[in-house]
Structure formats: C-alpha cells, structure tokens
Fold:
Amino acid sequence: MALWFSASAILPALIRDHGLSAFQQALFTSAVQAGFVAGSLSSAMFGLADRLDPRRFFMAAALVAAVANGLILVVGPTSPAVPVLRFITGASMAGIYPVGMKMASTWAKGDMGLLVGLLVGALTLGSASPHLFNALGGVDWRFTIAAASASAGLAAFAILLVGLGPVFTAAPRFRPRHVLEAWRIKSLRLANLGYLGHMWELYAMWAWIAVFLDASFAKSLAPEISSTAAKVAAFATIGVGALGSLLGGLFADRLGRTTLTMLAMALSGSCALGVGFLFGGSPVLLTAVCLVWGVAVVADSAQFSASVAELSRPELVGTMLTLQTALGFTLTLITIHLMPHFIEMLGWRYAFVPLAVGPFLGVWAMARLRAHPDAIRLAGGRR
Structure:
C-alpha cells in the first residue's frame, strides 16, 4: 500500500522544484483513485479473485504496480505519462487491498471485526509509509518513489508465505442488473450514504495533510528542520490511523456499527472544522490535533462494508460491496481536486472546513439507519 500515496508524499518538493499546477497536484492522487475504481469493477465482473489463486493474483498486481510506480523515475514527475502510470498503479491495487481482505477473512472465527480492522490498519500504515520514506530520503524525492516500489516488490513475494484459512469460499459474483437495490432498499441507501460521507473526507485529508503541515511548519519552525518535521508529522497523522482501525474493529461488534461510525465521524468532522485555526501556530498542538484526526478519520472505515454485507441479500453481497467501493472512490476524485481550489479561495485556515460536510452527513445517515428496523441485523443486533 506504500504505492498509493508515494507520489502525493513528495508534492511539497515537486511544487517547489517544478511549479506544478493545482490540477497536476491533485492528479497525482486522483489518477490512483480512478484506476482503483476501474480495476475493482473489472476484477468483480470477471471474478478474477475467485478464478485465480488469490496469492498469485496479489503477487502479479503488486509487481505491476511496483513497476508502474518506479517508471516515474524514468519519465520524470512532470511527464504526461505520470497520470497514466498512477492509473495503472491504482488499477493494480484492486488485486491487493480487496484480495488481501478476502484472504484474511478466511481465518475469521467470530472475530471478523478484529480481522477487518487489522487489514484496514495495515492499509493505513502502508499508505502512511511514503511520508516516512520522504523524511528518511531528505530532499531527494526519488528515494521515496524507489522505496515504495521496492516495498511493493518485497510484498509480492512475501504474500506467497500466506496460507488460506479453513473458511475460504468463492465470493458472491457481481450482478450489474441488481445495482439499483443499493438505492431502493432504504437501509442499504443509508449505509451507503454514511460511507460516502466518510469517503468525502478521508482521501482528501490523506492526500493534502502533508502539504498543509509543510506550509504550517514553514511558518513556525526553523527552515533547516521544518520540512523534515512536517514529513514525520504527516507520517504519524496517517499512520496512527492503524490504531484507529484496530480499535474500531475491536469495538464495533460490541458498541454497534452505527454507534462506532457516528462517534468517529463526529470527531473527524470536528477536527476538519478546527485544524486550520492552528495553521502557523504551535507545531506540537497542531500535530496533536492531527493525530486525533488521523485516528478518527479511518476508525469507522471497515464498518461501512460490514454494514452493507449484513444488510444485503446473501446472493448480492458481492454486488453491493463492489458498488459501494466504486461509488466511494469515485467521490474521492471530487474532493481531491477541489482541495487546491479551497486552499486558494479560503486559505489554509478554512481549507479543510468543506470536508466536514461529509462526516456530518454520514452521522445523520447512520442515525437514521440506527432507527430503521433492518438495523437489528447489524453486529448481531448491536446497532
């Protein structure tokens, strides 16, 4: 997962060195999102995760993604080929994240929430790792790209050491003709609205937090340490989400799906509203708020998928989950590209404020779902 934000992590350096336009900046991440949507839909429609050994599918996807990412070093960061390479990287991720989730689920014995939380935690920590590579590499952005590609290459072979659990089964097939059920059935509609509210905020925050911290620390710290401090803080902000994912997975089955998701979105939305007021101020206080945001923004992520799986007819689970993922990652294209305009129009103090709209809408949707009769099917009756 280090490949996902490998190019986004080096944006502050590329902006300084190459003067990238706002559209180019956003494209470094949004092309990955678009590729992931295309790859996920294609994989689901052709049943690739079921027809192929999931470990070999994962290995092939990781190798293709590693090569595509590494080719940025050959063509250069301003080349028109970069969005294409990022798209290929995203499409390959469809053979990594969902397939890894499926392999882990084969070991579930009444602890699916914990297992899913662990996987999302791994996704989060991996997504944060380019910021750590960036700090270790100093001013040379090439180190970050190379390290991310190398880690994906290592993962491609490490996955062969993974065994499949005793409950390995074929996933439900994707049925395009049934996609409208996600809107017609009210409980599914509310669960999907909650997920969309969550996704409105999540990837825009992950994509732009490093640029925000770099700009803020440049105002409050000495020039010789501000850039490295911002990189480490960005890594910590995203990486600490692994703890949020683990805690979310542990407690969602006990607190209830809607309870956990509403608490997480209320907290993350509040952070989006307030974090900009600390811009240029105390680096310690700003980092502390960002760490809270990093925990909250992803703690609920896996629970939306779990909710949709529990609310769907068994034969349509694959379709509903594929549709949810496709809609969510497509939505992220909007907020990732809007962020440069928010920054230009509102300044960093208010740039993240529009992101709060998503989680607060999500809280409303999950509160409505909590009151719906179908909610009794969530987490064994714990709404």
